[in-house]
Every structure is written in C-alpha cells, then in structure tokens.
Amino acid sequence: MAIRQLASFAAQRTGLCWATPLSGQASTPLATALRAGWCKGFATVEEGFKYATSHEWAKIEGDTATIGISDFAQSELGDIVYVELPEVGSEVTKGENFGVVESVKAASDVYSPLSGEVVDTNQTLTEDPGKVNTEPFTDGWMIKVKLTDPSQADSLLDSAAYGKHCDENAH
Amino acid sequence: MTRQSYLTRGFADDASLSKTPLYDFHVEIGGKMVPFAGYSMPIQYKDSIMDATKHCREHGSIFDVSHMCGLTLKGKDAVPFLEKLVVGDVAGIKNGSGSLSVFTNEQGGIIDDTVITKVADDEIYLVVNAGCREKDLAHIGKHMEKYKSEGGAVDMTVHDDRALLALQGPAAVETLQPLVDLDLSKVYFSDFHKLDIAGIPCYLTRTGYTGEDGFEISAPNDKALELTKKLLENPRIRMCGLGARDSLRLEAGLCLYGNDLDEGKTPVEAGLTWTIGKRRREACDFLGGEIIKKQLAEGVSQRRVGLVSTGAPARQHSIIMTMEGKEVGEVTSGAFSPCLKKNVAMGYVEKAYAKAGTELQVSVRGRTSPAVVTKMPFVPNTYYKAPTTAS
C-alpha cells in the first residue's frame, strides 16, 4: 500500500496541500509512509492470518485466500472514502499493486500478498468503504484469490511476527 | 512512480525544521508532526481529519499558523509603496480593516496571496504564506530599497517574535468575548484591533481561511501557549491540524498557493479579479498591470473552477476532459469533502468549459469519472459581515 498524502505533503513547497504530483499514477508504499512517525492507536492483529510487511493480510482456506488491509493500516490511513478493486478473473501477483484505498487526503496502493486469479471482490465496499475501517479483518475484506502457489504463504509473517513488525513501525 | 525522498529520511523532529512556540504542546496532545514549509507542524491530532473538519464547522477549532509570516510596513508612504506590488486598493481600505490581495510579478503572475490590513494611514500589517516567505521578503525588500532611494518613506518589520493562532468556527465569538474588552458584535469580517486578550497584547483580525466566522490572533511567542490554553477552556474548542485545515479551505473554495495559484497564473485567471480594486483596474499601475489590463478587457483563455465528481477523488494533477475525452484542464486541489460527503476539487479549464453546470470528466489513474463544474464555495461561508448600510 502506498500513501500519497504524506509524500506530497513534503513535496508541497508552500501551501497546505499534499495531493501528490501523481500524474494520475504515482504512489508510495504504505510501509514507507508509516515510517513518517504517525502516532499509534491500539491496532489489533488477527490470529491465524498471514501478513505482508506492507500491511496486507491473507486468510488462507485451501487454495483460496481472502485479502484485505490490516487494522494497523486502516488506523493509520484514517477514514477510508473510496476503494478501487480489480475485475474478477484478473491476475494478481505477490508484491504487486492490485487496488487502491483512499482516505480523505491519501490515495494508497494495495499490494497483493500472494499470486493468483481474482475469483471474487467485495462489492459492498463501493457503497460503504468505511467497512475497511470498522471491520478490517472481516466485512472489510477486499478480494478473494485462487492461489497459483499456496506455498508462497510460507514467506509471509504470522500474526505474532506481524504484531512485532507494527510495534517496530510505531513511534 | 514518484516518491518523495523525505519519507525515508526526514522526520518531523528533523533538526533542520523550525518549530513554532506551540511545538511541545502539539506533541504533548498527540499531534502527528510532519515537515511543512520548513516547519514541523501537526497534520492532525488524535481525531480523524474527517471529524476534525466537521468539528470546526459545528463548534470551533484553533489552528497554529505561526509558520505563516506576519510583517508590518510603516511610514508615510507605506500605502503607495505597497500598491506598486499588490493589486488591491489599499488606499481605499478603511483604517482598521483589510482584504485578501495578491502580489504580482512583471507578467501579472501571482507571487503570493496575502491578507493585508490597513492599521493606519502609515501602517500596514500583512500575513504571507510560510512557503513564500523568503521570496516575498526578497521581492518586497528589493522594491523597497529602490523606493527608498527615490525618497519614499517606508520600513518593514518581520514579526518573528509573534505567534499566529486562528480561532475558527461558530463557537469562536463565545470563546473570545469573555477575554476581551471589546464588543465583538461590532467587529466585522476583516476588522483589525490591537488589544489585550486575557491580558496578553495581541493583534486581532476577524478573518481566517476556513470559510467559518472566526479570528486570527497574533500574540507574542512567549505568551502563545498561555493564550492557546485560555481559548481551549471552552470545551467546544479543539486543536485542529493542517489536514483538516486543507479540507476546510477547499470546501470554502479558497486557493492554496503552490497548488491553485502560482507565478504562471494571473488573478484574472484565478478568479480573483475581485481583489483588484476598481481604481486599480483603471490604472493597472502595479507589476504586470499591462497584461492584467489586457486580460480584463479581452478575457482569458483559462479559468479556475470548482468541480464535484463521483468515483475516485480527483486530486492535484488529475486531467479534466470533456465528455468526448478532449483534455481541457487540470485539477489543482481535490479531496473528499468531509462535510458534503462527496469529492470536491478546483482546477483550471478552458474558458468555454468554465460555466457552472458544465458536465465534464476527470481522469484518475486512467479511469474517468463524471464531474460537474460547480460554483464555489462548496460549503457556504459564515463570515460575520458588516451590515451594508454601515460600511
């Protein structure tokens, strides 16, 4: 994931704005943005899920994974106002961007923790993007993916390791 | 893919950043500090930008805007000197009042926007943008040197010894009134007073940049925290960061220098023709006056407009297109409006598409969404204006 907000805030020479010099595309990983030292809430970590260091989670059931962003990520972003998701049938690749979440000021790319084919997307987020804030690990899920290689999950963090990762990010 | 390098190396406590007198207080109450125009400033506190924006419009908020640069021009020629550099009718401002204005360059482009207050015939108080400070001071200084060498009487003082707070929102008056010996019901939008607030010698201007009624208060640095805490005694008042400040000014249709205004745009293109006083329009005897005079007579090819769009929020640099896909402009500021719950933006479009109600499209990450040219402010302002008969 990537936050345009802070990035462009810095780029902004004068005024208040931090909407990115994005030319429609630019973005910065959330993990990078989080190093800017935002204060911490009390983000939770869901047991049994797998996590990417870029703050996405995967709930793996057989050869299918449900994917979303973590409580830590949503609490850092603030109120989510728009979610952009891929088409069912498209391919996602581990470590590559598959969608965008936007808060009041930030547009952030979401990276897929695993590779595979998108078999379902959470259409309720179109009408109610705030679900990503309120239920990041359940109703706020983003896509379901039929995995190309379920063993890719071995390289992801478990909940304990991800919790530690968040603590290290927290200032 | 553009990444700003500061994110990986620059922290808000970076030693190279300046701090306002309220820095420790911001940190203490949970401010998320970010680098901004050379200062470490709170982007938000513990409440979200959404909540903080709404709170200001429903109750009231204090913004630390001490990074902005206050300065005074003094001398019997202060007014004629300043009129060479700005488009406003400074001589026509009544003493103790003020106006938004802009500094122009030789091409009529906007060097900065500024709030000018005519304290007295020989005293002008201005506030300029933090990010433009150095170039503004150099610009004023250069022209002042020449002006003085030709016998003009004017001097400049930069108020680095003073902090600036903005108290904004419907609860601003009830918060300030008990602390001053002045009937605020007689103090109108843009009015200026030097007075004691809770015993602290301040400059008070009934202005702000949120679209709400409110005040900007210049106080000595060493009294800024005491004053802030005094204002916060009203439980309706909260500290508010730059994040919500940006939402508020955009909802109010107010320009942000560096986004919506720059040296390549004239006040006519920017929809700020109203800042050019009637007397100034006829003479156009300020920098770039000839170009602006021509634009006033013949019109301009592009204009700043407001846009309301659906889909993904159109942010700065999003392309504005016709329904047929012809590119006609670019967004200069855009965000989701916390108060209106929809995407609002401003940008520049070709004149033919600038009329309110014109249906256009915005392109965000390669996808287009419908957008409608919309009159600004998006959220009606609540300035406390003098009854027209009284002014």
TrEMBL record, chain A:
Q: Which cofactor does it need?
A: (R)-lipoate
Q: Which Pfam families match?
A: GCV_H
Provide the Lipoyl-binding domain boundaries. Answer: 64-146
For this protein, the record's PROSITE patterns field holds: BIOTINYL_LIPOYL, LIPOYL
In which compartments does the protein localize?
Answer: Mitochondrion
Provide the cofactor note recorded for this chain's UniProt entry.
Answer: Binds 1 lipoyl cofactor covalently.
Source superkingdom: Eukaryota
Q: Which CDD domains match?
A: GCS_H
Q: Which UniProt keywords apply?
A: Lipoyl, Mitochondrion, Transit peptide
Q: Which family does it belong to?
A: Belongs to the GcvH family.
**What is annotated about its quaternary structure and interactions?**
The glycine cleavage system is composed of four proteins: P, T, L and H.
Q: What does this protein do?
A: The H protein shuttles the methylamine group of glycine from the P protein to the T protein.
Question: PANTHER family from the entry?
Answer: GLYCINE CLEAVAGE SYSTEM H PROTEIN, GLYCINE CLEAVAGE SYSTEM H PROTEIN-RELATED
> Which protein is depicted?
Glycine cleavage system H protein
TrEMBL record, chain B:
Q: Where is this protein localized, as stated in its record?
A: Mitochondrion
Q: What is this protein called?
A: Aminomethyltransferase
Q: Where is the signal peptide?
A: none
**Protein EC:** 2.1.2.10
InterPro entries named among the record's database cross-references = GcvT, GcvT/YgfZ/DmdA, GcvT/YgfZ_C, GcvT_C, GCVT_N, TrmE/GcvT-like
Which keywords are on file for this protein?
Aminotransferase, Mitochondrion, Transferase, Transit peptide
Per the UniProt record, the source organism is Coccomyxa subellipsoidea
Class in the EC hierarchy, top level: transferase
Query: Which parts of the sequence belong to the GCVT N-terminal domain?
Result: 22-278
Q: Does the keyword Mitochondrion apply?
A: yes
Q: How does it assemble?
A: The glycine cleavage system is composed of four proteins: P, T, L and H.
Per UniProt, residues of the Aminomethyltransferase C-terminal domain are 303-379
Which family does the record claim for this protein? Belongs to the GcvT family.
Task: Name a Pfam family for this protein.
Answer: GCV_T
Q: What is the lineage of its organism?
A: Eukaryota, Viridiplantae, Chlorophyta, core chlorophytes, Trebouxiophyceae
Q: Report the protein's function.
A: The glycine cleavage system catalyzes the degradation of glycine.
Q: Which reaction does it catalyse?
A: N(6)-[(R)-S(8)-aminomethyldihydrolipoyl]-L-lysyl-[protein] + (6S)-5,6,7,8-tetrahydrofolate = N(6)-[(R)-dihydrolipoyl]-L-lysyl-[protein] + (6R)-5,10-methylene-5,6,7,8-tetrahydrofolate + NH4(+)
